């Protein structure tokens, strides 16, 4: 879960961003939020003009904050990971038991539409060795790992699954179906996630084929 020496050196070579004024920070946050919505709806090829329009800013304002599409996509994905990590940490700290915390986290992560953003990670839009990405990814992995460890330790979560199993299901159930045949797909996401969560509860009602999927399994290339 930690960073390698090469990743640390890469992070050290990347310059710190200057502190923004309050109004500039608000504009930046509006652009990132609007970009997240538009990227979920239309993918990475969407017009930057549409993102600026959705954010309520001019094109010049968008380009003052983000030099190009790749930089904007980078900040959107980092923002989503940070928001999901916030949700995982808050759920574990605030819920009365470990499985309630896991349930709350899964539904909150679904609202971030993580499945719709996954293609951005696999289509070459993201520098996965950038210090921002490494930090956000590590924090998220640690937060989800803590949630699942608490569930196993409490005896509420079946023992034959790992973080990779959870993330595969979460991303697949929040990924829009191909084409436009199911325009109201989002209405079913939380219903199906609830069915999935019921299957995670201990005691397990059946034996799963194969072995538990870890995050390293998901990262491993065939």
H/E element string?
Answer: HHHHHHHHHHH
Biggest sheet, in brief? none
Mean pLDDT: 83
Estimated structural class: mainly alpha
In one word, what is the shape?
elongated
The N- to C-terminal Cα distance equals 21 Å
Keywords: DNA-binding, Transcription, Transcription regulation
DNA-binding region: 47-66
Biased composition (Low complexity): 1-17
Domain HTH tetR-type: 25-84
Q: What do these coordinates show?
A:
The structure is a single chain. The chain has about 220 residues and is mostly helical. Helix content is about 65%, strand content about 0%. It has 11 helices and no strands. It has helices at about 5-15, 20-40, 50-55, 60-65, 70-95, 100-110, 115-120, 130-155, 165-175, 185-200, 215-220. Helix 2 (about 20-40) crosses helix 3 and helix 6 packs antiparallel against helix 8 (about 130-155). Residues about 1-15 have low confidence and may be disordered. Keywords: DNA-binding, Transcription, Transcription regulation. This is TetR/AcrR family transcriptional regulator. InterPro entries: Homeodomain-like_sf (IPR009057), HTH-type_TetR-like_transc_reg (IPR050109), HTH_TetR (IPR001647), Tet_transcr_reg_TetR-rel_C_sf (IPR036271), TetR_SbtR-like_C (IPR049445).
């Amino acid at each position: 879960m930690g960073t390698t020496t090469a990743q640390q050196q890469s992070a050290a070579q990347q310059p710190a961003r200057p502190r923004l004024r309050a109004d500039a920070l608000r504009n930046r946050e509006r652009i990132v939020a609007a970009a997240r919505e538009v990227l979920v709806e239309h993918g990475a090829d969407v017009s930057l003009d549409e993102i600026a329009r959705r954010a309520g800013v001019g094109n010049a304002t968008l380009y003052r904050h983000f030099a190009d599409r790749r930089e904007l996509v980078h900040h959107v994905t980092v923002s989503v990971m940070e928001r999901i990590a916030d949700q995982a940490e808050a759920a574990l700290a605030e819920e009365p038991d470990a499985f309630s915390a896991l349930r709350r986290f899964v539904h909150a992560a679904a609202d971030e539409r993580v499945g719709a953003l996954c293609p951005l990670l696999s289509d070459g839009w993201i520098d996965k060795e950038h210090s921002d990405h490494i930090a956000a990814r590590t924090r998220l992995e640690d937060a989800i790992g803590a949630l699942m460890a608490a569930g196993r330790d409490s005896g509420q979560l079946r023992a034959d699954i790992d973080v990779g199993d959870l993330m595969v299901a979460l991303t697949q159930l929040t990924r829009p179906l191909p084409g436009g045949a199911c325009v109201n797909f989002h209405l079913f996401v939380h219903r199906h996630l609830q069915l999935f969560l019921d299957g995670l509860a201990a005691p397990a009602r059946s034996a799963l084929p194969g072995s538990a999927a870890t995050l390293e399994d998901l990262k491993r290339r065939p």
